[in-house]
Amino acid sequence: MPLYLTRIRVSVLEAAQRRLTDPYAWHRAIWSAFPTGDGAPRDFLHRVDRRGGHFEVLVLSPKPPQVQPWGTWQTKVIPEKFFNYQRYAFSLRANPTQMRVVRTTDGKRRKNGRRTGIYQPAELRRWITRKLQEAGCQLEQFAFDPPLREHFYRKGRRGTHLRVDFRGILRVIDHQLFMQAVRTGIGRARAFGFGMLLLQPLPMPAPVAPVEEPVLAAQAR
After folding, report:
1. Do 170 and 140 form a contact (C-beta atoms < 8 A)?
2. What is each CA distance from 197 to 44, 51, 61, 182, 184, in whole angstroms?
3. What is the pLDDT of residues 114-171, one digit of tens each?
4. Who contacts 72 (Cβ-Cβ below 8 Å, separation ≥6)?
5. Under a CB-based contact definition with an 8 Å cutoff, are residues 203 and 86 in contact?
6. What does the pLDDT look like over 37-94, one tens digit per residue?
7. E-state strands within 80-136
8. Do the beta carbons of residue 75 and residue 64 sit within 8 Å?
9. Cα–Cα distance, 169 to 200 (Å, whole number)
10. Nearest 5°: phi and psi at 173?
């Protein structure tokens, strides 16, 4: 199944005029480019970045979108060979969370816990390592920007997501799991612009040539 990458450029002025002011508003605007009419679930991933006087929106989808009357749209098919590398530099905007145990006043554990954001560096490292392992990848290098709280409005109610931008280098161990993660995303809140893996292929590191015995012998003399 092919994958399509769409790049949309929207000026800050036009975004304001169309009330594209929070993650949920962007989600609704992009959803309109993939009409189904049969109640099918969302099958695209997206990410929105501010670039000076405009926004850059990246959309990954199994089918090309219908161009909307806002912004400038460019869509291309991602070549299958792009996903045949073993190592990639990656960028991931994620919503890292964990389930906390909640207890009643008498100390009993409640059936449903409470999901909270992850802020501590060591816990964030464990989170991204585990998520990439589940995606069939081994984490080689990583860094992240300070966690941010991102607000949105849905049906008149204000909500908040934790946002962390990860970047680094990964090595693909299981190609099938890797492709599933590329298509479906990583982590929670994917409808709000999280979970999309941005990838840049990297060459495998050159092997270290073994030192031959005659060379050592010559040096010893």
Report:
1. yes
2. 12, 19, 13, 6, 10
3. 778 899 999 999 999 999 999 999 999 999 999 999 888 887 788 889 999 999 999 9
4. 8, 9, 10
5. no
6. 666 777 899 999 999 999 999 999 999 999 999 999 999 999 999 999 999 999 999 9
7. 87-94, 97-100, 114-117
8. yes
9. 9
10. -105, -40
Q: How far is CA 159 from the centre of its chain?
A: 20
- Under 8 Å between Cβ of 140 and 129: no
- List the one residue out of 72, 69, 58, 66 whose CA is nearest residue 10: 72
- Would you put residue 98 in left (φ > 0), alpha (ψ -120 to 50) or beta? beta
Residue 208 has pLDDT above 80, yes or no: no
For residue 28, the tally of other CB atoms under 10 A from its CB is: 13
Distance of CA 52 to the CA centre of its chain: 22
Residues 76, 65: Cα–Cα separation, whole Å: 11
Q: Both tokens of residue 51?
A: 């670039």
Place of tokens 């219908």: 66
Strand, coil or helix: what is 19?
coil
